[in-house]
């Protein structure tokens, strides 16, 4: 009896503390873009809209058979912004998407009237976000089809209850995709980010690209210059050159910063497109507490990049399937 009364007294105190801490952290997070955007000179090397096409790298080799190349800018791109906020995203039943566009099993599509200049694999680290995945696929398939890409969507789901390891899932996605298809351009994509502008072409650039320059939840301002999270496009050779992502980041945060430092270490740079084009909206979800040891990991990462990554990747594929709208891997890691 005594124990019970102690416990009931403690609960409100703890909740209050947690509330105070998380509110102040939230406040800080919201204030950062404002402070940096307004009062310091943080300029980003954006690629202007008109220069985007010349930054894209084809990587598909020669024409196959009798077809001609698709035009450098797809005639199906639409100038109007489709998504204004995250209430705009309607789920389209998969049968309709398949029938309307002729998407192949495993979430593959390519133009039939011409040969696409760009072949890409879109890899999504995933667990427990069914609704987001449906919204993502409803939006992304038509979006990629309008861009006349030769693409495949791959979902790598983490098996079991250990903490989410986004970076390792992406390494696994990279390796498993290459067992299925010869592709030189990878887009690593969070399931809750949706591009709003058709001219944000989902092909690789000569340099690795951070794909969002403006997101609604960051009030369309980047919190810091070297942010390399959420959605990136990178060539296969560059990904190999940096030994992929670290496998050591369990829980939220840091893995993208570590990846950025890998890029820097190989004397590569990153680019971004004009924020008017590289705009995203983020699907709502409860905030996850950042992992406590991410700074420690990032520090360690400085010396372990050559042997932590693709080179020591170990995992088990528990299951895999070609679903209508995506290729699915269930991975224990
Ligand atoms: C984390 C990153 C994250 C970024 C933006 C940073 O503090 O380390 O992993 O992408 O915040 O949310
Ligand atoms: Mn998110």
From TrEMBL:
GO cellular component term of the entry, any:
Golgi apparatus
What Enzyme Commission number(s) appear in the record?
A: 2.4.1.-
- Gene Ontology biological process terms in this record: carbohydrate metabolic process; glycosphingolipid biosynthetic process
Gene3D superfamilies assigned to the protein according to its UniProt record, in alphabetical order: Spore Coat Polysaccharide Biosynthesis Protein SpsA, Chain A (3.90.550.10)
Q: Which cofactor does it need?
A: Mn(2+)
Report if keyword Metal-binding is assigned. Answer: yes
Q: Where is the Galactosyltransferase N-terminal domain?
A: 70-205
Enzyme class of the recorded protein, top EC level: transferase
Q: What does this protein do?
A: Catalyzes the transfer of galactose onto proteins or lipids.
Q: What is the protein name for this chain?
A: Beta-1,4-N-acetylgalactosaminyltransferase
Upper taxonomic lineage: Eukaryota, Metazoa, Ecdysozoa, Arthropoda, Crustacea
